[in-house]
Amino acid sequence: MKKLIYGLAVAATAMIFSSCGGHEEYETYVATLKAQPAVIDTISSPASYANYLDSLAEKASAFDKLGVKLDPTQQDNLSALSVEIQEALTRTYNRLAQTPMPLDEVMEAVHPVDSVAPEEVVIE
After folding, report:
1. CA-to-CA distance for 91 and 25, rounded, in angstroms?
2. CB-CB contact of 21 with 66 (8 Å)
3. H-helix or E-strand containing 4?
4. Which sign, positive or negative, has the C-alpha torsion 92, 93, 96, 98?
5. For the chain, first and last CA: distance in Å?
């Protein structure tokens, strides 16, 4: 699960480095990205984390579709923002992973496992 989430985050931020829109669109996008670490810190459930990753990927994809190339300074700026976002995603993931989550329903084993003494275990 963790690899999947990181993979999605990396894919979303990787889209940032491809061709982009005009100057105004770039500035708007950068402002949006700068706000993301604070947004990420407010995520309170695995479901909202997953939804956030989807929305981040959509933002990156929409910006990618604008089609204007970035200059090296813009690429460096987006690279730094990507690192900040990834760090915030990692902090939030780790926080959520440590938070006990109540189960919506009681899970019962269809075929319960009985305890077996070690000497009774036969490996073939």
Report:
1. 29
2. yes
3. helix 2-14
4. negative
5. 32
Q: Model confidence over 29-74: pLDDT tens digits?
A: 999 999 999 999 999 999 999 999 999 999 999 988 987 688 999 9
Q: Which residue, 116, 10, 18, is CA-closest to 74?
A: 18
Looking at residue 22, its pLDDT comes to 74
Which of 9-13, 16-20, 49-53, 120-124 has maximum average pLDDT? 49-53
Tokens of 28: 């708007």
Which residue is listed with tokens 């690429």? 75
**Structural tokens at position 82:** 């990507």
The residues near 85 (Cβ < 8 Å, ≥ 6 apart) are: 9, 13, 33, 36, 37, 40, 56
What's the pLDDT at 18?
A: 45
pLDDT at 110 exceeding the cut of 70: no
